[in-house]
Amino acid sequence: MFIRDTEPEIKSTRLADLSTGSRGVIVHVLGQGAFRKRISEMGFVKGQMVKVIKNAPMKDPVEYEIMGYKVSLRRSEADLIEVVSPSMAKELVSHYEGTIDEHRQKLSGVKKGKTITVALVGNPNCGKTTLFNYASGSKERVGNYAGVTIDAKEAKFKQDDYTFVISDLPGTYSITEYSPEELFVRNQIAEKRPDVVVNVVDASNLERNLFLTTQLIDMNIKVVIALNMYDELEQKSARLNYTHLGEMMGIPIVPTVASKGKGLKALFDRIIEVYEERDPIVRHIHINYGHEIEKSILNIQQELKKDEQRRKKYPGLKSCLMISRKH
Amino acid sequence: MFDDQSETLIADAKYGFIAGALKETYRNGPQVRHDQSRDIDKVLTHRLWGFPVFIFFIWLTFQATFTLGAFPMSWMDAAIGWFGNTLGSLLPNGALKDLLIDGIIGGVGGVIVFLPNILILFFFISLMEDSGYMARAAFIMDKLMHKMGLHGKSFIPLIMGFGCNVPAVMATRTLDNRNDRLLTMLIIPFMSCSARLPVYVLLISAFFVSYQGAILFLIYCIGILLAVLMGLFFKKTLFAKKDVPFVMELPPYRMPTLRNTTIHMWHKGSQYLTKMGTVILLASILIWAMGYYPRDLKLSKDYDAMLAQTEADNALTQEQKTEKTQQIQLSMEEERQEKSYIGMTGHFIEPAIRPLGFDWKIGMSIITGMAAKEIVVSSMGVLYHASMNADENSQSLKGKLQEQTFTRGPKVGQKVFSPLVAFGLMVFVLIYFPCVAVVAAIKKEANWRWALFTTVYTTAIAWVAAFGIFQIGSLFL
Fold first, then answer.
1. Are strands A152-159 and A141-143 parallel, antiparallel or unpaired?
2. What is the total count of domains within chain B?
3. pLDDT per position as a tens digit, B27-63
4. Residue B65 falls within a domain, yes or no?
5. Residue A291, CB half-sphere, CA atoms under 13 Å: how many?
6. b/e per residue, A106-128, with b = 16+ CB within 10 A?
7. What confidence tier does B218 reach under pLDDT thresholds 50, 70, 90?
């Protein structure tokens, strides 16, 4: 092997080789399939800074910090992530292509009734079930869905003149097909078509929690964000202009502290507004995936347009949903 | 740029969008808040202190679940016994009375007896999950468990299995991945639960004079060893395809709320009663009925006449009368059980268990043990003519077991039990068919196919193990 003297090669190492306390910036994720998908959904994407927190007592797995939250990986998995030292990683920042807005209100085709079906989705540990429990008391009944062993709890309660039927779906980081739980959540949204989806977001860990939100944006459904554990964000004396964030994403955001029952009345009031299509913020946006991917999506859309049957069959497919953009 | 896969590119772009949106709206606090979670983790996942602390929490959970849980269990037992007796004195004798008292009330008792365990265990599990400790427990145990093809979170259900397999199977819910959950469920039955202990105590005290503790320890170790081996085997065969990445969030520590914990506990308890309770109840009634019917038996002797004769015999003292009456009743019950459907099944399977050194009475006892393994002891009490309500400390039952000879087959007249047969039987009871409650739990948590699979494969391994012990052991002893 000869070394080119003109262009110094950037030396990358594997995440598993970093010592405790040191940092690295991700340049590349190796591996295939489920692992790769999972790891990028959890925030291990190009340009992210990772810090090694500590080794487990038996040296495996290893605790890392990324996007302000902590996660553990087995060494064999950390070995599939290439990193460079922070000083070498100036050009690796994630690109922001912006969004393509459509100033069009989302309209639901169904006739309005006084019963609103609400599905709760969100990451594990975001306080989703606490919110569900608080809102419903303990009056839930557990639905048993044929063929799956995953429970969705359901409860009914009244606020003003509206009856809410809320279901608590399993906590997931993403709604692709990575696990049966994710598939279940996706099917619950795509097939059962709840009137409003409440995306519970952990305010102390916004970046990763919002990943799921971007997938909900792609599904073109009515969403309200419950910005949960908002007190923790305030305690850190951090500032979040959630009204503006909501406007950008086309999704109303309501701060809540579910463990104390704070903000829940406002949350359900907002759900009514969205359901009645009176909320000015609600609109459909498109995340711009960059020129090449957008072009590919367009191709897929055109292919799918030829096949109306398939489109009806898989209303949840992202590529299918993007068809609506052209309408 | 396009050496990456499309999924990664889309994830990149999504995070790019999020970063851009937050850049406009989010301002971090002036200084990073003191990280409490890191301080707590300095102890809880410490290189040296991590394990003792974890073992302490597990010990606490185990003790609370099974030691503290034993109190409400005995109260409930007493209440059910009182209820049965009261009802018994009110109802006329007959099949309906027996069905109500022995079948239904006994079955209901068998269902709710697990409830305190389940409630307490899930109280603790809920505390661990809500506080964020569960993820740390998996973090420190993962290396060890991964070597066995399991997940760090499998450890807690497996340990709970030593108390009772039913809540243990329910506790596999803490595992996020279905394959990990199934694998853990499949090997939980090898964790020797407390219901199997009376069988071991009886046989060890009857047939092993010395090294009693060592034998008991060996039985438990065989169970653990089998669990590890089967875990590796299933990992390589049934669940070989997908090894799901261990990307596990370690959430910040948070104070669990009583409200949430109570709801979780209540939810699990009611789920157990409605989803598993009915299956367990039906199965218990079925096993009861198999031992009860047919009723129109032709018994070899006229026991009623013998009882009347004893009662009328003035030459006997009151004590002798009671003694003789009991003996006659026991003989009657013994013969009736032999001729019941369960007894018939016991005879039917005798050829299959003879290579293990078992006679039909053992066969019948292990069939009744499918309802709950401790029933093996009380069945033996009746079948070996010792007592109607024998427990593992019954001296007469031990004596009878030691004297028991084959009544039929090629080995007529020879002693049934030797230390070798007793050991084989203990191993068999350890491994075979987990009780109906566990099967019901697996059916609920997985599906009936996995439940059926568990019953078949455990019984098959039990047979092979007992066969090996008896046949190989016979060569040397």
1. antiparallel
2. 1
3. 877 655 567 888 888 888 888 888 999 999 989 998 8
4. no
5. 1
6. beeeeeeeeebbbbbbbbbbbbb
7. very high
Global pTM? 0.80
Rounded to 5°, angle at Cα B127 from B121 and B129: 100
Long-range contacts of B393-398 (CB under 8 A, 24+ apart): B393/B201, B393/B205, B394/B202, B397/B202, B397/B206, B398/B202, B398/B205, B398/B206
Asked if residue B14 lies in contact with residue A214, where contact means CB atoms within 8 angstroms, the answer is: yes
Please provide the DSSP assignment of B361-379 as one string. HHHHHHHHTTT-TTHHHHH
| Among candidates A40, A60, A204 on the partner chain, residue whose Cβ is nearest the Cβ of B11 | A40
Position of tokens 């020797």? B192
How long a stretch of residues is chain A?
A: 327
Tell me if the domain spanning A13-88 has CATH number 2.30.30.90: yes
Q: Testing the interface with B: which of A289, A291, A295, A318 to mutate, by most B Cβ within 10 A?
A: A289
Residue B328 resides in a domain: yes
User: Which of B362, B367, B406 is closest to B380 using CA atoms?
Assistant: B362
Report the C-alpha gap between A323 and B23 in whole angstroms.
30
Q: Nearest residue of A to residue B6 by CA position?
A: A293
Q: How far is A108 from chain B (nearest CA, A)?
A: 26
What's the CATH architecture for A111-286?
Answer: 3-Layer(aba) Sandwich (3.40)
Residue B445 three-state SS:
helix
Q: Is residue B305 part of a domain?
A: yes
B310 assigned to some structural domain: yes
What does the pLDDT look like over A118-177, one tens digit per residue?
Answer: 999 999 888 888 888 888 775 444 443 433 446 677 888 888 888 898 888 888 888 876
